[in-house]
Amino acid sequence: MKLYNTLTRQKDEFIPLVPGQVKMYSCGPTVYNYFHIGNARPFIMFDLLRRYFEYRGYQVNFVQNFTDIDDKVITKANEEGVDFNTIAERYIKEYYVDAEGLGIKRATMHPRATETMDAIIDIVQRLLDKGHAYVAENGDVYFRTKSFAEYGKLCHQPMEELQAGARIGVGETKEDPMDFAVWKAAKPGEPAWDTPWGTKGRPGWHIECSAMACKYLGDTIDIHSGGLDLIFPHHENEIAQSECANGCTFANYWLHNGFLTIDNEKMSKSKGNFFMVRDAAKEFGYETIRMFMLSAHYRSPLNYSVESLEMNKASLSRLYECRNNMEFRIEKAAGDSMNAEENVKLESLMGYKQKFIDAMDDDMNTADALSAVFELVREINGYMSAHDDVSKAFLTAAHGLFMELTGVLNLAQKRDEAADPDEDKINELVAQRTAAKKAKDFAEADRIRDVLAEMGVIIKDTRQGVQIQRVKK
Ligand code: AMP
Ligand code: ZN
Q: Which of 221, 329, 339, 393 is the 20 to 30 A CA-CA neighbour of 285?
């Protein structure tokens, strides 16, 4: 498998540290609010990478953190007059609600900064011991950026250029404008932790990821990922801290997703041009959002628009329709073996699996992988409508292939119609309509069909019987 590596600026063949295993770390949300569609992009796409590795037989150890203590969490807590922990707890719970809706698996671990304080304090202490960090006059601890000669290797900027953009902020007492905080001395009323170097305080943002990746995955990991905006300074700083503290490479592959835009501008909380996943899901459904994300390669920009969501909603229905048609036909079909024509057809369908794998192996190209799935759908649909007597064996194999590929993407896997409270009523109406048709009372049969349509049920008469299709009302 090839992955585009920000560090080398090319697609590199993925070679894991330990054969058959993947150690992945992805930067998670700061939990002071619901997350928006832009934030959802890395959460969905790097979860998909994990799923794909698992599909290919790797054992994946995937860590995604929760930043549960920082300025934004504290500000929100002060606004509401509650403890910072109340805010963090609330939005961690809400994260899981949206993540589950979007079909994101729980990571192997979701550590929180406040629960990793020992490891954070330990790495800061090691940086102090080695002279890569210092305690400033105001009690903050800063990383001595110039002590790491390779600084800038991820964002591919020479030190001098980065230096030109560096500033010393109000209240900061750094030796050099390039230095950044690894520990912040407590301000009155703020949550604070004791340290061996004497300043009570809380961690800077960058250090928590260095500490967590190291604690849960080891000094060197395979893959580190996040959004494009994190390359500099967040990931550049993580590299500097980790490599200075541990004396070895931090991550072999650095993956970054492109921006989710709206009117071609980056969606962000600070600009106010965002849609919460929660709200968009009410309008389009969570799975449509997932489909929309997967419709583009994770590194390309992706623009959010109602038209695009509607289009993806329709694409998703095509997947469900194909699955439901196959399942309907499997129930009715006979034939435990395939005829010669079916054998040839199945062989050709298998070609789409290879196409799918080739696309995913090429830097997780979900756009092409989805095209392979839709070509498969078109062929299956075409074959089923041209042949009334397809064998159960062929249908089961085609269905298995469809479920395997869509299963990797975690699309069209839902079975919520089984829990349809109208199920009995629908079956009764269908039976009444069949009886009316038999009695040649076509007006009554049409009336019942309209009642069903009202309930979001479309019926189709086929040679195998009445086919029921539920559409969202
Ligand atoms: P935050 O909670 O702001 O730290 O963001 C969590 C994740 O979302 C990070 O990996 C960000 O890079 C990513 N992210 C934020 N905004 C966008 C966007 N508009 N498009 C893509 N990724 C984003
Ligand atoms: Zn991070």
A: 329
Q: Atom 7 in ligand 1: which residue has the minimum CA distance?
A: 39
Distance CA(55)–CA(50), nearest Å, equals: 9
pLDDT tops 90 at residue 433: yes
Counting Cβ atoms within 10 Å, is residue 447 exposed (0-12), middle (13-18) or buried (19+)? middle
Atom of ligand 1 nearest to the CA of 226: 10
The answer to whether residue 419 scores a pLDDT higher than 80 is no
Per-residue pLDDT band for 61 (boundaries 50, 70, 90) equals very high
Give the chain's mean pLDDT. 95
Tell me how far CA of residue 79 lies from CA of 73, 75, 84, 87, 185, in angstroms: 10, 6, 10, 11, 22
pTM value > 0.85: yes
Task: Name the β-bridge partners of 249.
Answer: none
**Max CA distance (Å), the chain:** 93
User: Which of 306, 321, 303 has the alpha carbon at shortest distance from 261?
Assistant: 303
Q: Say if ligand 1 is within 6 A of residue 225 CB.
A: no
Nearest CA to ligand 1 atom 21: 259
Give the β-pairing of 465-470 and 133-135: unpaired
Q: Give which of 272, 75, 290, 274 is closest to 191, Cα–Cα.
A: 75
Pick the more confident residue, 467 or 376: 376
Q: From residue 63, how far is each of 120, 216, 392 by CA, in Å?
A: 16, 8, 43
The CA-to-CA distance between both ends of the chain, in Å, stands at 42
Compute φ and ψ for 378, nearest 5 degrees. -60, -45
CA distance 173 to 142: 9
Pocket test for ligand 1, best of 6, 39, 302 (most atoms within 8 A of CB): 39
33 lines ligand 1 (CB under 6 A): no
